[in-house]
Sequence to fold (263 residues):
Amino acid sequence: MKTPATPENEMDRLNSLRESGLLEIERSPAFDRLTRLAKRFFGVPLAMVNLVEEHSLVIKSANGDAPDTVPRNISFCGHVILSQNPLVVHDTQQDPRFVDNPLVVGQPGIRFYAGIPLRLRDGASVGSLCLIDYAPRAFTEGDLAVLDDLGALVEGEFAAVSAATTDELTGLFNRRGFNQFVRFTLSVAQRRAEPLTLGWLDLDHFKAINDRYGHEEGDNALKAMAGIMRKSFREADLLVRFGGDEFAVLFADTDEQGAWIAM
Fold:
């Protein structure tokens, strides 16, 4: 098995991915529409939009029976991000790079793979739109053109997410919004010689809410948390949802003791 190499710009690539806001999105109807379209058009059992994090794939959308997680070192998508070109493997059992890959010899038993690299606006290659089949198959130049067109649509959605500064679910600033506005806030505080304090919050047992009551109730809990924060803190304070159940408050003109009182 050939383990995917590490890109030369790996640190910059990971920083771009983490600053993009894509990792904070738990579900995306736009990505789901595109994987649904890809699966139907190509007649494959599985189509996915994946992001390549430091040690594993982050599956943003899967139409078909997908694994919960895939280690990066055995992933096909880890190879995709290394090139500007698509990766097409007509029959994994005839390809020395993948013939003994655990995803080929074990479950799910991949025999065909086609993946298009997905890039952010700064050019960082962060993932792939891929098709998977459990039998060998042909893949024409026309098929590649269609997959490339779908990949461009996914990248358009990436750009929309990266441009957003607010969290769609709660209406608070997201990570990108925080990074943009915190520079201004720090500059103002420095000019006025005013203190700033950053407070971190998270919801205890949030995963248990999702597991027991479903994601809709989990979303309601996050929105309730955002409502409590708006009522509890000042308009001058920067309220942020960093992702998952992690929140933050940047207290304006407040020292640490004042922040503890507010919290």
Notes: The mean pLDDT is 90. The two ends are 52 Å apart (CA to CA).
